[in-house]
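Suppose a colleague, Dr. K., hands you the sequence of a protein chain of 334 amino acids and asks what its three-dimensional shape might be. Before reaching for any lab equipment, you can write down a predicted structure in token form. Begin with the sequence itself:
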Amino acid sequence: MLPRYLRLMTLLLFISASTPQSLTMNAYAGLSEGIAAYQRGDYASARQEISALAESGDAVAQFWMGATYQKLGEKVEAEKWYRQAGEHGNTDAQLALGRLYYAGDGVQKDFIEAGKWFREAAEQGNAKAQHLLGMLYDQGEGVAQDYAEALRWFRKSADQGDDEAQCYLGLAYAKGKGVQQNYAEAARWFQSSADKGNALAQLNIGLAYEHGLGVKKDHAKATYFFLLAAAGGQREGQYHYGLRHEESARLEYEKGATRGDPRVYKTAFSYFMQAAKKGHPDAQMKVGAMYTLGKGVPKDTTEGATWLLKAAQQDQSEAQFLLGMDYVAGDGVL
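The predicted structure, expressed as tokens, is then:
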């Protein structure tokens, strides 16, 4: 039998070794429960479950503490926990911290600080951070504007499947920003992004099909992608889908119909109005003109003049002309 003092030392060593492990297991169980609480919107419970592990220095728990405090509207605490996690190398926290500084959300807006954290995450392979770092280079925010460097980061992100980066890579090829203009390559990236549901990419691949840029001209496919972009809330997509219906009604008239199908005009008006409410000047002009003529909507010259004025104030030339004609005729205006 071991001497009494050796048995005591062995017991103490066992306790010192086993207790932290037990606590750690409980803490990680708390993290799992905390994440579940966060996901169902119970942020108070999430904070309670996660705090022990976060305070012990676990970077993942610190990130979730930051996310929880952000949801609770406590931005200073969110920044504190994101920073602790970010300094431990957690890329999700670094991305979140960069976004806080970029938007000035609870902290002073600072593009340089945002870029620092986006870069930390991007260099570890975080696709979204790579895309956002590319955006900083594209816009010259916090860094010297450099289209080639923007393209490099967009490509890294796009190669990992980030739909926004794929869309912006397509725009870079379409405009020749940081790379030789190549419509076929632009269309390839727009298509890849559009297939993931990106509304801006859906608009741009629709425009590519409409004008035959990098793909064979195909009005049916253009209309299909304009509809998808419109459904995704993209105002330019809403405007172009409205144009498709207006064009359809006009073609029916040219084929001998007494007037365009009122149902088609009604659909066109609906999409023009969606875009107009988002401030699209061409759509505002269309809404104003359709109210003035009573196409797709009951005639209302006063409402027509209201929308023409909105468009005219954005330097929409057709609206300025039509509004001028209204003033000459005293139609809907004083």
